Amino acid sequence: MQDNPYTRIVAKLARALRLFAVHWELTYRCNATCAHCYLDVLPPHADPGELTTAEANHLLDQIAALGALHVTFSGGEILVRRDFFEIAEHARRKRLAVRLMTNGILITPPVADRIAALHPTAVEISLYGADAATHDAITRHPRSFELTLRAFHLLRARGVRLVMKTPLMRENIRQLHALRERATDAGAIFQSDATITAKDTGDATPLKHRLTYADLVEFLRAEINAHDPASRGESARACGIGLSSMMIDPYGNVFPCVQTRISAGNVRTQSLKKIWGASPVLREMRALTWSALPICRACKLKPLCPRCHGIARAESGDLRAPAAINCRAALARRQVLIEKEMLPPDVPIPAHLKEEKF
Q1: Has residue 273 got a pLDDT over 70?
Q2: Residue-wise DSSP of 293-305
Q3: pLDDT confidence of 2, banded at 50, 70, 90?
């Protein structure tokens, strides 16, 4: 992890088990049905029993009382909630920094005005292709490419900090350069991620969009340069799960993170303070150091591995098992770093991966 004042603050809060950030999926309703989505989204006008406006605002009071500083609102599509701005404005009144994740389709000039008035730390908008044919085929929403680019334009004109997010898939990997140019033209920071997972229900359909191993290697060849560290270095933990952040779903269920869907409690029946301080699930997550992972703890590729406990559980039912997608990423990074002479050629392939076919 890059060492800067922000990361030092987060690390200090994690050591003290202080809640710093909350990722809140406000709704699973959406006006798109993206082919790769890990959620089984609901239609925009469904009535699924989400937290009410009053419940949401009370939850924000609890988040602020615990000393948290940051809330990310995502969905589904956050703007299909008619009370979205009531909730977001209450978060700002509680002096919480907010970050918004949206597909941008519903952002018109009046909506852009209200978003700008929130002074969000950033608005993250997904773009799945450099052209309408690619993007709209993934969202399965006509004109979504046009409307998403409009959202970037409207928010940029209002001085909002923008992030263009692209999950890398077989459909768009050859457009990576063009997507970066789209981000530059939109005045946005470009972020890509090659992690495509199964649905939370276990449906593996999204995995057909996942990059091949050859695609991943080719991507890393372009991404890794001599200025990149050859590894992340040794650390006691694969991630900071349960230490300073949590995830909340539209119905008040609290989870350790977006990927780890094991309920630590529900805010309709327990206070957030009690869940954060006493949940056995969060206590278990906090104990997940490398030493608690029977196979991964001895793996020589640990410093190259984007290990995710939640993905491991989704793949195998075991939080402590290796996650094949993470192993594949570590192997691809090993190959490219050796090619670029940033690692010695004799860095071993761990025994548990020698027979894997990616």
Answers
A1: yes
A2: -TTGGG-TTGGG-
A3: low
The Cβ-side half-sphere exposure at 11, using a 13 Å CA radius, reads 11
> Is the CB of residue 248 less than 8 Å from the CB of residue 25?
yes
Written as one letter, the residue type at 196 is I
- pLDDT score for 351: 86
pLDDT digits (tens, 9 = 90+) for 120-138: 999 999 999 999 999 999 9
Rounded Cα distance between 257 and 295, Å, is 23
Contact present, 234 and 218 (Cβ < 8 Å): no
Non-local (6+) Cβ contacts of 278 within 8 A are none
Q: pLDDT band at 357, cuts 50/70/90?
A: low
Alpha helices by DSSP H, 40-108: 53-65, 84-93
Distances (CA, A) of 70 to 60, 66, 158, 250, 275: 11, 11, 22, 18, 18
Tell me: the pLDDT tens digits for 179-191? 999 999 999 999 9
> Token digits for 35?
């082919």
* DSSP characters over 279-343: -HHHHHHHT-BGGG-TTGGG-TTGGG----HHHHHHHHS-TTSPPHHHHHHHHHHHHHHHHTTSS
Angstrom distances, CA of residue 166 to CA of 64, 117, 196, 208, 350: 31, 26, 11, 17, 31
78 contacts 41 by C-beta, under 8 angstroms = no
Q: Could you please report the per-residue DSSP string of 151-206?
A: HHHHHHHTT--EEEEEE--TTTGGGHHHHHHHHHHHTEEEEEE------TTS--GG
Contact by Cβ (8 Å): 102, 55: no
DSSP class of residue 231 equals S
pTM for the full model? Answer: 0.92
